[in-house]
Design a protein that fits this description.
globular; 5 helices
Amino acid sequence: MEKKPFMYKLLLSSIFFFICSNFIYAQHIKLDKKEMGFLAAQEKVNVVFTYNDLHFNADNFTESEFLQYIKEKIAKKLNWEEALDWEEKHFAAKDSIYPRIFVEALNNRIKNYDHPIEFVWNDPSLKYTMKVQTDWMYFGYDAGIAEQPAKGNLKISFYETSTPEKIISEIEVERAEGFNVINNFSFYNISYNGSIGINSKVWLDKFLEANENHPKPSLIRMGTMYDKAAVRFGMTLKRVLD
């Protein structure tokens, strides 16, 4: 009986350490407040996505190497039609879905700040641009008894849209991890009975319908990486916008 209070305290200490460790990790994005001071005076900022020199997995596959490996894996289990279909969806997600997820999650995270600017995907008419460069991806997996979230390395840079060569500030978001529940998007309301909430997005509804199972890497799982990375980045922007 005397050991219970000690074990209870030890358990609480462990939980507290775990929470604090995750909180510190979530905040670990370096940002120069002085460099980013211009942001608070803006109403809208353009957003572009790039994937220059993109690599995959611990093997650091190039994209062409990775796609060939994945297509052969899918074709072996299913067929080449399924393999090519996944490849097409992969490129579509990179071109339009991941940017939308990132922008939606970021705007949702900062909407209650003192200066809640709006990030707008692909609007070059705006004075400033934020470029989100992805140079590494890992799709993760769910094997039933074990799972790994998707991960990615992002470099976020700001510049005046008319002079992209003059970088105002650059921020790195390394080893960003997605959510374990792959349809759990921070900006997306889904009720417990499965119905869609008031923030329903038609483009996201269609994306969620195409949930890939093994041997296809989950594009939705990768989408949650961009969601969570945007939330982390939005938390960091609090220093500038709030």
